[in-house]
Amino acid sequence: MHIDVFRLNNGQGWDLQLKRFVDPERLVEGRRPVMMIPGYCMNTFILSYHPGGTSMVSHLVDEGFEVWTANLRGQGDSKRRWPGVEDHGFKELALIDLPAVRDKALTESLLSPDAIDLVGCSLGATVIYAYLGHHPEDHQVGSVISIGGPLRWNQSHPLVRLVLSSPTLAGALPIKGTRRMARLALPVAKRFPKLLQLYLNSEIIDMSAADELIKTIDDPSRRLTRQIAHWLKARDLVVDGLNISQALYDVDVPMMCVLANQDGIVPPQAALSVLDHIGSRQTRVVRVGDQRYPHAHADLFISRGAKEAVFEPMAQWLAERYDDASATKSRGKEAMDA
Question: Are 127 and 221 within 8 A, CB to CB?
């Protein structure tokens, strides 16, 4: 697998980082590139790393896709061009950074594409929704996969509501050292798994790789945290004056929702809410976890069974967009349990 690193000036003082992953011997011509967008307090590291097996990126590359990961401002190795306050919200991420990295991937792709398939990881999916809401037709997006991504807070965990009960307090102080705190928390979670059960099920993750897993954690943006708190109270997300739930009615792109059965960060109803609003004629739902092996938020990316439960359905669904061209003209509501 070849890995190429790109940097992009977003025009607002940030150099964004992108990576292209491709295996020339497996690459299937005629497909669109697949770009992955990480979520809140998250960077792209975990998308190309798995503690005990094949990563999400590696699996898609093995299946013949050109895969991109993009760190937007405040994420991973994206850097400020000059000193300043690292504060940003949905508007900056969705309306500036996302189209910028999309255009860069389309320009640098080995496939000569006219559109891109987007994978939104947690809040990364929300960023995609916000962009599509503002650009219902001229988006150059071939399809969207949401992995535990919320649109409308039809359901939220009481602890999450408590932590974000005051938007003013939630974004009042800068939080630094999040990765260091996670390094201390993960070993404790191995001994007392219920402490982090909202986020992960330590019984189905190789917790011995904690030092690697925490590399995907970033410090939060105060402005974004405040906006999430307001969104949680209002249930509907408003970005730059536009109600995104309402705006998505005019958006018709193939849509897959992947969700965990015991996700305490983004409960199933919140992850599925996009299907009540988006105008997609092709949708699929992949439900991961059962009573015996419950899955939480992070398990969708790093659990021992993630390849079979998440990555394989993703690759299959993306490939079907080319195998059945007539599907774009018909309405189909599909469901899959994993």
Answer: no
Cα distances (angstroms) measured from residue 78 to each of 14, 49, 72, 186: 7, 19, 7, 26
Average pLDDT over residues 306-311: 96
pLDDT at 39: 92
Q: Are strands 332-337 and 282-288 parallel, antiparallel or unpaired?
A: parallel
Q: Please state, as a whole number, how many other Cβ atoms lie within 10 Å of the Cβ of residue 323.
A: 8
Produce one character per residue of 8-44: b if its CB has 16 or more CB atoms within 10 Å, e if not: bebeeebebbbbbbbbeeeeeeebbbbbbbbbbbbbb
72 CA to centre of own chain: 12
Q: Which helix (H) or strand (E) holds 123?
A: helix 123-134
> Please, what sign has the CA dihedral across residues 180, 311, 337, 30?
positive
Closest to 268 in 3D by CA, of 161, 149, 126 = 149
pTM of the full structure: 0.90
Query: Is the distance from CB of 21 to CB of 3 less than 8 angstroms?
Result: yes
Provide DSSP, 16-73: EEEEEEE-TTT--TTPPPEEEE--TTB-GGGGG--SSS--HHHHHHHTT--EEEEE-T
Measured N-to-C along each axis, helices 123-134 and 98-108 cross at an angle, to the nearest 10 degrees, of 90
Write out the two tokens for 4: 């190429």
Q: How far apart are CA 337 and CA 295, in angstroms?
A: 13
DSSP conformational letter for 204: G
Give CA–CA dist 41/62, Å, rounded: 28
Amino acid at 141: V
Handedness of CA 220, 215, 56, 263 (dihedral sign): negative
- Give the closest residue to 129 by CA, choosing from 94, 89, 92, 93: 94
**pLDDT tens-digit map of 107-155:** 999 999 999 999 999 999 999 999 999 999 999 999 999 999 999 998 7
- Which CATH topology does 2-337 take? Rossmann fold (3.40.50)
**Can you tell me which residue has the tokens 């992995």?**
147
Enumerate the domain spans of the chain: 2-337
CA dist 271 to 75, 129, 130, Å?
A: 23, 12, 15
